[in-house]
Design goal:
341 residues, mainly alpha, three-stranded antiparallel β-sheet, three-stranded mixed β-sheet, 14 helices
Length: 341
């Protein structure tokens, strides 16, 4: 994907959902069949609806680039996310074809993944959505710091930009609801320093730490018991890994890493997912030792796909191998959610 486009702010943002999150759809237009979840109630509007398979659909009018990358990875079309974004708004999903974003055969492959409808989140699903968005911010910042430390300021710049340009608007309503102090200004200050060439490393480090502390403060708006609950944290982890999976799928083409930014994005998300799991590993091991061993082993193997923030000459693993590891971790984590018999 083209770095210059990746740094553009979106007009609207979308939620990053996980398959385990409960939600209800509130149709605003036609374009996807909705499958309401009876237990959900009115809450914050997300950029997703429910597709024919009952999973969250990607709202092509509001989704941020990391969500649209799932479509790019599915179809293997370089810069598709930017093309979708540039052709907004859509009155119906079929306009992806009529606006020459993709052809009919390509649309047929993703028509059940896309929507122009919104969904409403409530309860735990809303909290998972909130922490997942903030986790994406942290993943971007993690990999940006690695690149800054390696002297790759130009490569770090888009990852500093993504939290403020793509994600902040998507989480802003929830930040306000949870009475979290505004920190967009903090993120912009760090971004401006990087854009200026990061000439003062000490100042950059100070602003980076301030930005990271601000994101951590926003996460701390959730109750500590919830943040330490394996069931809750594993849902967030699955959301991060799902996004990493789609980013990596968009990064690799023809057996090569053709989009370095997406490679780096996915690395950052996996890094933070692993950090989150380390915080709950002892609890999982106590009640489900075999599942803990499996998750740790698969997470270790998954992480090996990103040996450094600098993309290797060739992929360590295929997109299919990465996808299988992510799905296996998700499957194992679901066993933790099941009540004891």
């Amino acid at each position: 994907m083209l770095p210059s486009f990746r740094q553009l702010p979106t007009a609207a943002a979308t939620a990053i959902l996980v398959a385990l999150s409960g939600c209800v759809s509130t149709p605003t237009n036609t374009g996807s069949t909705a499958s309401p979840t009876p237990t959900a109630t009115t809450a914050a509007t997300s950029g997703h609806s429910m597709n024919h398979g009952g999973k969250p659909g990607i709202n092509i009018n509001t989704a941020i680039l990391s969500e649209l990358d799932k479509l790019e990875a599915k179809l293997g079309i370089p810069a598709l996310s930017n093309k979708i974004q540039a052709s907004r708004p859509y009155g119906k999903t079929e306009e992806l074809v009529s606006k020459n974003v993709i052809n009919q055969a390509q649309f047929d492959q993703i028509k059940d993944m896309v929507t122009i409808e919104d969904v409403v989140l409530t309860g735990e699903a809303k909290d998972v959505d909130y922490m997942t968005k903030l986790g994406l911010m942290k993943g971007h910042l993690f990999v940006a710091k690695e690149l800054l430390d390696a002297g790759k300021v130009d490569q770090a710049e888009p990852h500093i930009g993504h939290p403020v340009e793509e994600i902040y608007a998507d989480v802003e309503d929830q930040l306000n609801e949870r009475k979290v102090p505004e920190f967009k200004t903090t993120l912009i200050k760090l971004q401006d320093l990087i854009k200026a060439g990061a000439k003062d490393p000490a100042q950059v480090n100070a602003e980076f730490n301030t930005s990271m502390q601000a994101v951590d403060g926003a996460i701390a708006a959730l109750p500590e018991a919830q943040r330490q609950d394996p069931k809750f944290v594993l849902q967030v982890i699955n959301g991060l890994l799902d996004t990493a999976n789609s980013e990596y799928g968009a990064a690799v083409a023809n057996g090569k890493i053709s989009a370095v930014i997406e490679y780096q994005d996915s690395r950052g998300f996996v890094m933070y997912a692993e950090t989150l799991y380390q915080n709950i590993a002892a609890q999982v091991a106590k009640t489900n030792p075999d599942i803990d061993k499996a998750i740790v082993a698969n997470m270790t193997e998954l992480k090996a796909n990103w040996p450094t923030a600098i993309a290797p000459p060739a992929p360590v693993k295929t997109t299919e191998q990465v996808n299988q590891l992510v799905k296996t971790i998700e499957s194992d984590s679901q066993k933790v959610f099941k009540p004891a018999s």
